[in-house]
């Protein structure tokens, strides 16, 4: 889960917009409804990775192994400090307005709908929860495969909040950027209300070194350079072999060679999205 240094570190105030913390499991036990059981991935170890690649700001994403119990994510934000950290929670309609306000005060800025691993926010609550979190200025974050994105793209465009899409929208690289699934992503970006996380390797069709997603990343960045953000997806759960964060940053630099675009994606865009 550690990493070798990248060819060049990320610029000052760069944000890792997508990673998870697992454990310590004696303090934060996993949900019995989880679909996988990862090893611990602790704050101190993540900080070593962040220092190695040059990350100064960070967004902790609640993982499906914890369901709607956000204690591990809130604890991580507290350890990092809200001067440099935010979080994305998993909730359901059992969270009342006071509970949502408490989450906001602890650094939460979005709600994740995991349509791949499950054990999280129920999909049928999407529209209702979007209306409830809109007054807080939160966004809805979607983890889905390409087929699902094609199915729900028009619904997402109608939500009263901004929408952040995980992992390049889950469209496999082998399908190509002309595929209807990828074109659905571009239409969503065209609304001006959607953001894309260009954490790319889970969209690979070829596997290591996950380089076949280059065309996807380039097309997404070209479509919405002001609404793309980047993340390591550390600790790369359920990936064997797992990539290294330094390699992923090297790929991003190679695929987005323009300094201005990289500055937007690594620094300026996440500052706007998460309120740094």
- Kindly state the percentage of residues in helix: 25-40%
Spatial sequence of strands, sheet with the most strands: 1-2-3-4-5-6-7-8
Rounded to the nearest angstrom, the distance between the terminal CA atoms is 27 Å
The number of helices is 9
Give me the secondary-structure category: alpha/beta
Taken from the alpha-carbon principal axes, the silhouette is: globular
Rg over CA atoms, rounded to whole Å, is: 17 Å
Q: Can you count the beta strands?
A: 8
Outline the structure in words.
There is one protein chain. α4 links the parallel β4 and β5. The mean pLDDT is 97. It is built from 9 helices and 8 strands. Strands 1-2-3-4-5-6-7-8 form an 8-stranded parallel beta sheet, with helices on both faces. The chain is globular, with a radius of gyration of 17 Å. α5 (146-158) runs parallel beside α6. The protein is an alpha/beta fold and 276 residues long. It has helices at 43-53, 71-80, 97-105, 126-133, 146-158, 180-190, 214-223, 245-255, 259-274; strands at residues 15-19, 57-61, 85-89, 108-114, 139-143, 163-165, 194-197, 228-229.
